[in-house]
Specification:
221 residues; alpha+beta; Immunoglobulin-like; 5-stranded antiparallel β-sheet; elongated
């Protein structure tokens, strides 16, 4: 324990405290607090002693601060461990295709896969496919579908039965249940080229310079 000092020289105590604070660390803060408390008790006025409730409250505050610092340290260690584990799992996806939020599609093989995530079951689902100019190319009637992730593939044909030319297309999901709209999330297929980790967590770098969060994955192929 630190040497007890007279309260008449409190400035020296705070000076030492500032040095300890600069070093950082819970132990230095605790030692400084106990030194001040002991000095205050040794030099208290016998006719006006310290209130026991006040001393108890000060000790409780110190314990709370120390507990919060310990908890923060544990959470940071846990987050770092989870991040490293997630990075290792994401690395296994390099070269594989994943279904993630997005509405792009192509008639080319593999790129013709699309999906959607329904918030609840729907008794009627249609998918409208549009070309780059926004023109309707094909409308697919899927009938009833269950909630959750649904996957399908476009055969690459237009509404007239002709093969759609190569290029970028987009699609829109329309789902209803009992005449009421069902919310949905469009999903498109992406090839994982690499993974990275930043301030937003683990990111998947997909072909076409697309980047999504690891947590956005709905399905792996």
């Amino acid at each position: 324990m630190s040497t007890v000092q007279d309260t008449s020289n409190v400035s020296s105590l705070f000076g030492a405290g500032a040095t300890a604070a600069a070093k950082g660390g819970t132990q230095e803060t605790q030692d400084r607090f106990l030194s001040l408390l002991v000095a205050q008790m040794k030099n208290q006025d016998p006719l006006n002693p310290l209130d026991n409730a006040q001393v108890t409250s000060q000790l409780a505050q110190l314990s709370t601060v120390q507990g919060i610092e310990d908890m923060n340290g544990s959470l940071q260690a846990l987050a770092a461990s989870m991040g490293a584990n997630q990075m290792a799992q994401a690395a296994n996806l390099i070269g594989r295709a994943v279904l993630v939020p997005g509405d792009s599609i192509s008639p080319a093989e593999m790129e013709d896969v699309m999906g959607f995530d329904l918030s609840r079951p729907a008794d009627k689902v249609t998918v409208d496919i549009f070309d780059a100019a926004g023109g309707l190319v094909r409308s697919l009637n899927l009938g009833p579908r269950e909630d959750g992730v649904n996957v399908l593939a476009w055969d690459g044909l237009t509404s007239k039965g002709a093969a759609a030319p190569e290029g970028e297309y987009s699609f829109k999901i329309n789902a209803v249940q009992g005449g009421q709209e069902v919310s949905s999330t469009a999903l498109h297929l992406g090839l994982v080229n690499s993974v990275s980790q930043g301030s937003q967590g683990v990111q998947l770098n997909l072909a076409g310079n697309d980047r999504v969060s690891y947590s956005d994955i709905r399905q792996i192929f």
